[in-house]
Amino acid sequence: MPDPRFFTSSGPLALKLLADRAGAQLRDARHAETRVHTVAPLQAPEPGALTFCDHRRYLDALPAWPAASAILVTAEVAAVAQTDAALLIAPAPTVAFARMARQFFPEPLPPPSIAPSAAVAPSAEIDPSAVIAAQVSIGHGVKIGARTIIRAGTVIGDGVQVGADCDIGVLVSLHYCQVGDRVKMLAGARIGEPGFGFVTTPTGVVKVPQLGLVEIGDDVEIGANACIDRATLTRTVIGQGTMIDNLVHIAHNVQIGKGCIITAQVGISGSTVLEDYVVLGGQVGIADHIRVGRGTRIASRTGLFRDAPAGSSLGGFPAVPIREWHRQSAFLLKGRAEKKEQANE
């Protein structure tokens, strides 16, 4: 159960109401008015709680759940489940659980306000429904949309625009950027810092001025301490609905499409293009001026040095088709085992 010191439940809620909101169906209509008040892991049965079971291998845990509780399952699991708890059937129990958990624990919205310690330029336009927390600095010409929250210690540079219903975390810095609606940024994100642009000469390094900006689409999430550099002359773009994990670096001029998933410690070099719905595993490194096709999936710790066709699955260093990478790994493991056997003879 979520710790009540940090998370306040809005329950109890009736199962029929929850099922309707999450696209699930009750196996037994007699449980329609059964009320649950919290969520819990499958391995920790709790009266009045909701959990989920998305695979048959977890069936042994179901009998321990009491009748006053509820379990989200697939139709396949429901056909063989043995439990007194109410069963809610959904094609994707994890998705339905996420929707229901949000019903119990919606993110709290502080009342509209501007903290006395905030430094706000006179020319800034802040919607009356926005929240500006303590020690925030907002520059000239900034625009903050309706119901947006700017959390403590954040710095928003001159001319930046932030849309409606955004949540900008603590100690974030925003410069030279435009941010869409419903964007969430976690603590310490750095948006719009200058790109790493320079040319070498016989007498030393000459920095190239970074005169572009960053454009972030609607419904984007940016993790803690992620860095997105502004473009040299045009725009670094993060497409609608893209999810970026903690400690990701996105260099200048990068173009990222819609619905991409970029996990922790990924590094994307300058002027690379990710088309829509690309998935990058942890610690992937991508060289500059690479194009990654729509729907491509790249395994963790892969190094990509050439274009990837749409729909491909890649892994290894350097990147190769995923099956080839698996064969390479098996061959190397076999070779090591043979050497070990020879050494022991």
TrEMBL record:
Keyword Lipid biosynthesis tagged: yes
GO-annotated cellular components: membrane
A Pfam match: Hexapep
GO BP: any one term: lipid A biosynthetic process
EC number(s) on file: 2.3.1.191
Pathway(s) the chain acts in: Bacterial outer membrane biogenesis; LPS lipid A biosynthesis
Catalysed transformations (reactions): a UDP-3-O-[(3R)-3-hydroxyacyl]-alpha-D-glucosamine + a (3R)-hydroxyacyl-[ACP] = a UDP-2-N,3-O-bis[(3R)-3-hydroxyacyl]-alpha-D-glucosamine + holo-[ACP] + H(+)
Superkingdom assignment: Bacteria
Family that this chain belongs to: Belongs to the transferase hexapeptide repeat family. LpxD subfamily.
Function: Catalyzes the N-acylation of UDP-3-O-acylglucosamine using 3-hydroxyacyl-ACP as the acyl donor. Is involved in the biosynthesis of lipid A, a phosphorylated glycolipid that anchors the lipopolysaccharide to the outer membrane of the cell.
The protein's name in its UniProt record: UDP-3-O-acylglucosamine N-acyltransferase
Organism: Elstera litoralis
Gene: lpxD
